[in-house]
Design goal:
The complex is a heterodimer.
Chain A lengths: L6 H6 L4 H45 L5 E7 L4 E3 L9 E6 L5 E11 L4 E9 L4 E9 L9 H4 L1 H4 L5 E2 L5 E3 L9 E3 L5 H29 L1
Parallel strand pairs in A: 8-9
Antiparallel strand pairs in A: 1-2, 1-3, 3-4, 4-5, 5-6, 6-7
Chain B lengths: L6 H13 L12 H6 L4 H24 L9 H23 L1 H7 L10 H11 L4 H31 L1 E2 L2 E2 L14 H27 L1
Antiparallel strand pairs in B: 1-2
Helix pairs in contact in B: 1-7, 3-4, 3-6, 3-7, 4-5, 4-6, 6-7, 7-8
The chains are: A alpha+beta, B mainly alpha.
Chain lengths: 217, 210
Amino acid sequence: MDTNNLPHIETEKGSSSFKMIFTLAIAGLFSGFFLATTFIYTDPVIQNNKKEEMFAAVYEVLPGCKTIETLEFDGSTFHVLGENEISENPIFLGKDENGGFVGFAIPASEPGFQDLISALIGYDPNTDKVIGMKILDSKETPGLGDKIFKDEAFKTNFLDLDVSGTIEFAKKGQKNASNQIEGITGATISSKAVTNLLINSISSWKAPIKQYADGRN
Amino acid sequence: MEEIKPIEKRDSYEFLKGLWKENPVFVAVLGMCPALAVTNSATNAMAMGLASTFVLISSSALVSLFRKLIPKEVRITTYIVIIATFVTVIDFLMAAYAPDIHKALGAFIALIVVNCLILGRQEAFASKNSVWLSIVDAAGMGFGFTFALLCIGTIRELLGSGSLFGINLFGSTFEPWVVMILPPGGFFALGTLLLLFNWWKYKRKSMRHE
């Protein structure tokens, strides 16, 4: 770039302040108009993508789920949200084809080795078990920490995990009870973070979910 | 505007220089941030290259079109407004129609704004040349950038994951070099390619002297 010869171009003939302000104002105006137009056309698609991605995850963590209701917690109880209502902190209720409860899908996040790990937990209040878990977003080290969503053995921890009492972390090969999560060798911090994520979200959601489920059953 | 070369010759020259002779990554060493950060797979590298090409071509066309109206004192600001607009447009479009790639590239799409390759072409070329030549130059530079990113991305994905564009090539017996898809792998791949490029240039130069 030849930026060196600029100063003497400027001294040749300065532009008026009006022209400068006018140019920037016009540029900003057109930019704003163009962006707003693009936003209007793409935003519904983006929101829909997010919803579909979330729903796909819900179907995955609640096996046998056929329909999904979106719920919102207001501090004391849950409300069912309509088709087009968007919630900041939704919780999903999965039902089978007869309308019976399959379970609740709870989004949760917890600091991992690199950044927040966010996940969706499938919880069945009737049996008090976690029946599925999917990592939605994480920046864990490729090849090590990313085993929390690539390692099949680790995933099986969450297909039938007893959460009626405490949830415990066990080293690889030392799992001997149904309330234990077997960690991953070489990804201890990441797999412990997932355990903490589960402990924290289950302990805070268990009571309101059970109360709500009993009320609806 | 002065035409140094016959017009049709100049077109191809302006296009081809970006691909090879003045390649933004291998020769000018511009745009290092995306070249290192998002080249951990060939797909990501290609998406980043094409997104930058789109921004480069549209900004160059617009800057060139208004080059006589933009006062010298505020030209950089105006260029940045134009570039940032197109970057945000491609950001929205990718989030809407290519959500997986958008997720993989993350903040680096927004960071195309500060890619000095793009501002550099506005300042060095589009602000002094006709719309058509600016588009040709931007396309050449954009594809040269994409080509360079793809080279780095291919090496890193092949060694780091044993695959190319997500297709497994080496089978399950291949132990991936995880370091290649981590940040240091970006430096290794880029360094090796720059070394090869410069060695080749040096060799050609010395051959011409003989």
